[in-house]
UniProtKB/TrEMBL annotation:
Protein name: histidine kinase
Catalysis: reaction(s): ATP + protein L-histidine = ADP + protein N-phospho-L-histidine
Membrane spanning stretches: 145-164
HAMP domain ranges (all copies): 166-218
Domain (PAS): residue spans on this chain: 227-272
Statement: the UniProt record of this protein carries the keyword tRNA processing: no
Compartmental location: Membrane
Stored InterPro entries: BphY/WalK/GraS-like, HAMP_dom, HATPase_C_sf, HATPase_dom, His_kinase_dom, HisK_dim/P_dom, HisK_dim/P_sf, PAS
Organism of origin: Hymenobacter canadensis
Length: 581
């Protein structure tokens, strides 16, 4: 018999017992009720009639006719309510005596009527007593029956309560114990099959699963060890430094390159808290600083480069931090499980970059002198001091001068780039008002607004705190942003300059907004890279792709940030921040 049938039969039996006890109790109550009603309807009524007859006899002395009528009425009713043995004879005797009294009223006859009435009352009173005792005996008997039935039902229910739950959970206990052993990789603790019910079926299926798990573990252990050794070999033979830190900031993995750079054996790094290692190792402390940087603030395009001394010369390693996110099936959500730090040797690329920077600096300086001389000569030719020039020659000279000016601007930007890369750029920090910088840039840019009939909307609150900035470099950035806005704004459009205190009160934010075509999302970060130009429907090709890159470097070197917010067809908003003085 399976477990479901056992539980069903137990509940049905308990239900039948409950119904039986209820039905027998109702039957006993109805039986006692009928007995009590018979006593009240029969004997008690006869006693009441006897009392009326006695009162009629008492009244017959004062008013014989009325008393006699009441007596006869009560006797007639009693004759119709004869229920006890001998009661009919008493009624007949009363009827005969009443007839004699009516013919010849005498005291002796009245006394006989009274005696016979008392006899009738006594007969019914005895019957009442007898029937009450019988009812009491019946009630006691029914009470015993009900008590016995309740006891039987209680014992049966108690038997089911003790046996059915135990039968239901005993198999679960065995299954739980076997699962615990399997969790501890002990697949030998099978479940004994002791029945053919549901637990027996589960036990046989679970035992088959244990056998398959044991076979699977045996067959795949060698493969897992081979894969582990292969992965360890790959990690250990990487030419990059690799560290793995878990969510509790403990070092889980370090390869030989990273251990060599940290000048610590791997055994002293594994399992150690990252904060503890950072207190005694400068390089690890620098790596931890990059690890602590929020993911949203980590540079996306160019990771930081560390300069280390190795074998008597400088080597360069690029640091990359990647957070590891894993899906937790138990909680049904993604969780942070650790971070991977990599140190990539970029010394060769750094040398090439330095060679490129040196070449740019040399060429820029070499080009600037002849370009300046050409520009001066063009001015002399346009002024006519060296001879007359006709209109066509003037037009040619203007074109040459415009292209020469563009070359001078490009050379100047290349010189700025080389200075930024070499770290030789000089910043003159001083407290200054943002309003003064904005006003100077606005005055300078006025002539460039006229060809397109553009207007400049400036809103800079006077109560803004002073900022710590290089006035010349910051003005250059603002002019560059305004020039870009003029270039891409429609005719008779408007440019906006706003300034406000940034959230937190530690920086002032300045924005330049235009109503041009906007910048697609995929280009909004690329425009800050060097020599990058986005597709332009207007056909403009005058820029070098260096302005925004230099502007970001200038703002970053002053402790601020420069970024863009734009949507296609809705214009662009360039924002930069400067620290409060």
């Amino acid at each position: 018999m399976n477990l479901k049938t056992k539980i069903t039969l137990a509940f049905i039996t308990m239900l039948l017992l409950l119904l039986g006890v209820s039905a027998f109790t109702l039957f006993s109550l109805n039986r006692l009720d009928r007995t009590a009603r018979n006593v009240l309807q029969d004997n008690f009524y006869s006693v009441e009639l006897g009392q009326q007859m006695l009162r009629a006899l008492d009244s017959m002395q004062a008013a014989p006719p009325a008393g006699l009528v009441r007596f006869r009425t009560a006797l007639t009713r009693e004759a119709g309510n004869v229920t006890e043995t001998g009661e009919q004879a008493v009624v007949d005797s009363l009827t005969a005596t009443l007839a004699r009294y009516e013919r010849l009223p005498q005291a002796a006859t009245a006394a006989r009527l009274r005696a016979q009435t008392y006899r009738m009352i006594d007969l019914n009173t005895q019957a009442l007593t007898r029937k009450n005792e019988a009812a009491n005996r019946t009630a006691t008997q029914q009470q015993r029956y009900v008590l016995a039935l309740l006891t039987f039902a209680l014992l049966t229910s108690l038997l089911f309560v003790l046996s059915v739950p135990e039968a239901a959970v005993s198999g679960l206990r065995k299954l739980t114990a076997s699962i615990e052993n399997a969790t501890n990789q002990d697949y030998s603790a099978s479940i004994p099959v002791e029945s053919h019910d549901e637990f027996g079926t589960v036990a046989r299926a679970f035992n088959r699963m244990l056998v398959q798990l044991q076979d699977y573990r045996t067959s795949t252990l060698a493969q897992l060890m081979a894969e582990r050794n292969r992965a360890a070999s790959i990690v250990n033979n990487l030419d990059e430094g690799l560290l793995l830190v878990d969510e509790n900031r403990r070092v889980l993995l370090v390869n030989p390159v990273a251990a060599n750079l940290l000048a610590l054996p791997a055994a002293e790094l594994l399992g150690q808290p990252a904060d503890e290692l950072a207190r005694h190792n400068d390089l690890f402390r620098e790596l931890l600083r990059h690890l602590d940087t929020p993911a949203a603030q980590r540079p996306q395009e160019a990771a930081p480069v560390l300069t280390l001394a190795q074998n008597g010369e400088e080597v360069y390693y690029r640091v990359a931090v990647n957070d590891v996110i894993s899906f937790n099936e138990a909680l049904d959500k993604m969780e942070f499980v650790g971070s991977i730090l990599t140190l990539h040797n970029v010394s060769e690329y750094k040398k090439l970059d330095q060679a490129k920077s040196n070449f740019l600096a040399t060429v820029s300086h070499e080009l600037k002198t002849p370009l300046s001389s050409i520009n001066f000569s063009l001015k002399l030719l346009q002024n006519g001091k060296v001879g007359s020039v006709n209109e066509e020659q003037q037009r040619i000279l203007a074109t040459i001068k415009q292209e020469n000016q563009r070359l001078l601007k490009l050379v100047g930007e290349l010189i700025d780039v080389s200075r930024l890369e070499s770290g030789n750029i000089q910043l003159n920090f001083q407290p200054t008002q943002v309003r003064d910088i904005v006003q100077f840039a606005a005055d300078t840019i006025q002539l460039q607004l006229q060809p397109k009939q553009l207007t400049l909307d400036i809103q800079v609150p006077a109560e803004l705190p002073a900022v710590r900035a290089d006035i010349e470099k910051t003005t250059w950035v603002l002019l560059n942003l305004l020039a870009n806005g003029i270039r891409y704004s429609p005719e008779q459009g408007q440019l906006h300059i706003r300034a406000a205190l940034a959230p937190g009160g530690q920086q002032v934010e300045v924005l330049v907004q235009d109503h041009g075509p906007g910048i697609a999302p995929q280009y909004q970060e690329k425009i800050f890279q060097r020599f990058v130009q986005i597709p332009d429907k207007t056909g403009y090709r005058g820029g070098s792709g260096l302005g925004l890159s230099i502007a970001r470097e200038f703002i970053g070197s002053q402790g601020g940030q420069l970024w863009v917010e734009s949507e296609l067809g809705s214009g662009s908003t360039f924002r930069f921040t400067l620290p409060v003085a």
